[in-house]
Every structure is written in structure tokens, then in C-alpha cells.
Amino acid sequence: MTRVTLIPGDGIGPEVAFAAKEVVDATGVKIEWDIVNAGADTYKKTGSFIPKTLLESISKNRVVLKGPITTPIGKGFKSINVTLRQKFDTYANIRPLKSMPGTKGRFDNVDLVVFRENTEGLYAGIEHKINEDVTEAIKVITKKGSIRIVEEAFKYAKEQNRKKVTAVHKANIMKITDGLFLDCAKSVAKKYPDIEYEEKIVDNMCMQLVMYPEKYDILVMPNLYGDILSDLASGLVGGLGLVPGANIGSDIGIFEAVHGSAPDIAGKSLANPIACIMSSAMMLDYIDEKQAANRIRKAVWTVLEEGKWKTKDLGGNATTEEITNAICKKP
Length: 331
Ligand code: ATP
What we know:
With 331 residues, the protein is an alpha/beta fold. It folds into two domains: 1-98 and 237-331, 3-Layer(aba) Sandwich (Isopropylmalate Dehydrogenase); 118-235, 3-Layer(aba) Sandwich (Rossmann fold), CATH 3.40.50. It is built from eleven helices and twelve strands. A hairpin with a 4-residue loop joins strand 11 and strand 12 (253-256). The longest helix is centred in the middle third of the chain and has 17 residues, at 143-159. The chain is globular, with a radius of gyration of 19 Å. Bound molecules: adenosine-5'-triphosphate (ATP). Adenosine-5'-triphosphate binds at residues 12, 16, 68, 240-241, 259-262, 264-265, 271-272, 275, 313.
């Protein structure tokens, strides 16, 4: 039996995280869930955003299914998500973006995977105030950080029989930092002669994705570009309610949807649980329960294709529970 830490999170977090738990349990895979919360709600109750019990649980279990967590904006708190990524060194943020039936995506042929460097770049958390009128943030790009994320992208491309890796950068302006990222990407690409390698400047990449998403396959990039491009690409496939993610380190996996805590719809049973459910399928792949993972993906696909149960973001009226039940019931 695998022990998994389940973090319900804030806002719609508990609704989508427990929906995903229900779907995983319905596959029959034996998981012992260690439910420990973090975030704004936990802070109100315990005075701590990330309780010690959570850090202990993650350190022990090394597999986590996580709902979105809210960090108060601009109050001097370091982002809880960034803290967890840095503490457990989950350096690879992997976000598959694939067109699915019955959604509001503008395209039906998108099949991208974004590999976002997850621990450094402009999210290194090094910011300071020079004086009241001048502030600075430091962008950190290292050889180690760049090589390991690009390696992860090529390794995945090879295993999944994908054809092309595109490195996304702004090295024409940030010559030293993004220049180092590109040098590292080039050196890793040489080891994979069977996989096409290309480079795109991030602003051009945005236009390319909106016009010709079908031309792209695996995208690898520093932290901030990955955050922005994955939201952009989620718009191409029907919105944030559908896009899953994994934060992978050398011996740890934290699985969570790309979306945030969506306070505007929290507690109303309007949240689309599919992004979190698809994240739980990535978690099952990670713990080698591939059959159950594929079963979940197929069930989600069938429910969307049938179109009977759709949450509001997909143009329907179904509640979070209704779509979750429909997914659980599929063989
Ligand atoms: P963060 O900064 O934490 O990533 P955010 O400010 O980008 O969060 P989200 O919480 O991701 O914002 O929400 C953006 C929009 O998408 C909101 O209008 C929200 O209602 C919608 N949204 C996000 N997730 C879902 C979901 N699972 N189901 C339906 N709508 C969602």
C-alpha cells in the first residue's frame, strides 16, 4: 500500500482534491491517504502556513497530491508553493496540455507538454528594496538547474516517442542568464540526435502558440516563462479547469493542477475537478499504477465526449460532485 500526502489547500482546493481522491479510490488502487493541510486557512487556525506535520508527512511519503494553496499578496510572505518546491527540490514542473472533446478549446489538435524549471529563475525569491522608489529582483539561472530540466524534457520525449523539443528563452536581451540556459539546452540536445531541437524567443513563442499550436510538441524553459506559457496554452485547450501538473524531484513527486485557488467560485460546487483528477492520474503513473492512470484518463475523455456532465467553465451546469461521480462510474 502506497502512502500519499493529500493537501486539500485553499479556495476550491478541498473540492477538487477530494474529488481526485474519490476517483483514485474508485480505481481500486490501494492508497493510504495522509491528509494534512497548509495555506491561508491553516494559517488562521494554527498560525503557520506550512505546519511541521506537513513537512514531516511529505519527507516521509515522497508522493503528494495537492490542492491549490493561497499566499497573501505583497505582505512579506514567501509563496508557499515556491517554498515547497525549493525545500523538496522539485525542479521539474511538467504540464501536459492536450485538446479534449466537448471543451471550449479553440483547437482540437493541441498536444503539448511544458517543462518549466521550478526552483530558480525570477522565482528564486531574491527581491529587495533599494529605497521607497526603487526595487530589484534577481534572476538566478544555473548550469545545474538548466541541464536537469532540459534533460528531463529530452528523457520524456524519448520515452514517450515525441518528435521535437523547443527551448524557449529571451537570450537576445538577457544574454548572460538566458544565454547560459540556451548553452545548456544545446549541450543536452546533442545527446539526443533522433529528437529535433529548436529554439524560440518567448514573445514569438506566445504568438506561435496562439496561431499554430499543432506545430509544437515538448517545450522547455526557465521558471517565469513556463508559468505564463502554461496558462496561455491552457486557454488553447479549454481553460485552467482541465490542465494537470507534476512537480518532480530526484525522489519526490508533488502533483497539482495548474490553476490557483479560484476564490471567486470557491464553496459553490462550480469548480471543474478534471485538472486535479488528471494530476492524480500523473501521480498513479509515477507510483507505477499505469493501468489505473490510463483508466482515469479514459473515463475523463468519455465523460467529456458524452457531454452530459459539464461544469460551468465547460459551458454546462453540472456540479463538481456530479462530474466526479460520472467519472468514477466509468469502467
Ligand atoms: P494563482 O496565482 O494561484 O495561479 P490565479 O490568480 O492565476 O491563481 P486561478 O485561481 O487559477 O487564478 O483562477 C483564474 C480563473 O480561472 C478564475 O476566474 C477561476 O474561477 C477560473 N478557474 C480556475 N480553476 C478553475 C476550475 N478548476 N474550475 C473552474 N474555473 C476555474
